[in-house]
Amino acid sequence: MKIRRIFIPFISFILLPFLTFAQEDNLRRLLPDEISPGFKAKAAPRIYDASNLHEYMDGEAEIYREYGVIKFAAQVYSKDKEEIKVEIAEMVDSTSAYGIYSFYRSPDLNRIEIGDEGVIAQNQISFWQDRYYLKITAFGTGVEVFTTATNLAKETSSRIAGHAKVPEIIALLPSKDRIKGSEKLIKGILALNNQYYLFQEDLFNFRAKAVGAFAEYGIPEKKIRLFIVEYPSADEARNALIRISEEKKKNARLKHWHRNDKKRIDTLLFQATDKSMALHRKGNLLALVIGTDEVGVLSLLYELRW
Fold first, then answer.
1. How confident is the prediction for the chain on average, in pLDDT?
2. CA-wise closest residue to 169 among 188, 193, 185
3. What is the mean pLDDT of residues 70-77?
4. Which domain holds residue 201?
5. Do the domain assignments include residue 66?
6. What's the rounded Cα separation, in Å, for the pair 229 and 131?
């Protein structure tokens, strides 16, 4: 037994550098030295990990870390005065890859059939596939540079062997009146507060391996926001409900609390001066609905099909 306790860490120590190099190779093979027609890499790709990503993107690195970035690579191709920048993030799994993609996706962007899902802006294509998230940006005024960027996105997608489906928690978001493209997968308090500021502290306790989904509903003037969080256990979901309700009592009035221990259900309704809020727990799932009026909040709450 003593030999086993010593041997396993020793083997891990030996293998760690090889695993790191293998992860870097995963990204390097997605970045050719040259892309047609005539766009060449300006230098070797820059490769980062979670510990030093801030050197490349100060301010955004924390979001990538929250979602679970393993490696990140950046490469620039140029031809004459035009450039194409490629950024690739390898995440811990496909859920995290979809999460970081959804974090940056905007509802007003058009879909493009690349990867497992992609969107296109004026000069940028972003998509996720398997455990990867990619952004390809074209800098130039001609048609050629963006056509080349689009072709590069398709070619890179073909080099990624795997595919993945949208995480199951997204399917828990009701479809009625949902603003298409507003869906986000949440893995921490930073991502959550970037959608709608709620709490300074992580009252949802995402550290307990919780995963959340977010979406917006209705029209901008009466927009309703829905958060759904899935926990490893019902106890953790109810503890989060109690923490959040205690915090909301500081600036809102608790109008109603229905509890059914047999069905493992809690439903709370709060009313503040400018908004209404409902908390609903069933088993290990917790929903938070926020809107400008009680009717809209309750209507969306009733659309939950758990």
1. 90
2. 185
3. 97
4. 168-302
5. yes
6. 22
